[in-house]
Amino acid sequence: MRNIRMKIAYDGTRYNGFQTQPGGNTIQDVIESALETLTGARTRIVGSGRTDARVHAEGQVFNFHTESRIAVERWALALNSRLPEDIRVVETAAEVPDDFHARFSAKRKTYRYSICIGKFHDVFRRNFEFHHPSPKLDVDAMREALLRLQGEHDFTSFTTNHADEKSHVRTIYSAELRVEDRRLDLYWTGNGFLYNMVRIMAGTLIQVGQGKIGEAAISDILHGRNRLLAGPTAVAHGLTLVDVDYGESDEE
């Protein structure tokens, strides 16, 4: 049995998220169907993490075990020919050790939340960024607030409660706000993210930019460990999973 790792990008606009669910129409469902067509066998994939409906990815990673003898360099093209245009394998596949697990082997992940600050929304990016036309956001205050989210914290205030999470402690290695033309991009790299954590951080930072929450209040929100203290959950379509890092063994 071989263990194959692949990296994909997808436009999540018309899907109900990455992870399979009773309602169907997920990225995982589509990929597993394509793999079955390709190999002739039912194949279960393991993703590096779930993304919600309308959330996108530039570097989602998954792995699967298979008895297929397809050459590793052929997997990407073979699978792409069976996937819809809004889901694409973006790197040559790799055969990895049997104990590699796309989720549990990950060392860090990077997410981006995009905000359009132009008066009029860019029609070509409407599905990939949140539109905030006015009033102007205070970028300096948002950057200060971002710094307070860096480091190891209990992020209970920044997650929708889930009983399956044993701990809400996570480490944010870097947090950055980039301004480009009419867009603000918020980046977070961390060792893991709780359910809705990035979207709640984004919604809170938007309120900081609006002057509704002071940047210094971020520390109090963290220490309070209460979801009601933080801002709203930002809309899903502004969020993109940018990269998943597996450390030195990730790429040759």
Automatic annotation (TrEMBL):
Reactions accelerated catalytically: uridine(38/39/40) in tRNA = pseudouridine(38/39/40) in tRNA
CDD domains cross-referenced by the UniProt entry: PseudoU_synth_EcTruA (cd02570)
Stored NCBIfam families: hisT_truA
Binding-site residues, substrate: Y111
Known EC number: 5.4.99.12
UniProt similarity note: Belongs to the tRNA pseudouridine synthase TruA family.
Top-rank taxon: Bacteria
Phylogenetic placement of the source organism: Bacteria, Bacillati, Bacillota, Bacilli, Bacillales
GO molecular function: RNA binding; tRNA pseudouridine(38-40) synthase activity
Subunit structure: Homodimer.
Xref: Pfam families: PseudoU_synth_1
Annotated protein name in UniProt: tRNA pseudouridine synthase A
Active site (record annotation): D52
Domain annotation Pseudouridine synthase I TruA alpha/beta: ranges: 9-104, 148-246
Keyword Lyase: no
Keywords on record: Isomerase, tRNA processing
Described purpose of this protein according to its UniProt entry: Formation of pseudouridine at positions 38, 39 and 40 in the anticodon stem and loop of transfer RNAs.
GO BP term (any one): tRNA pseudouridine synthesis
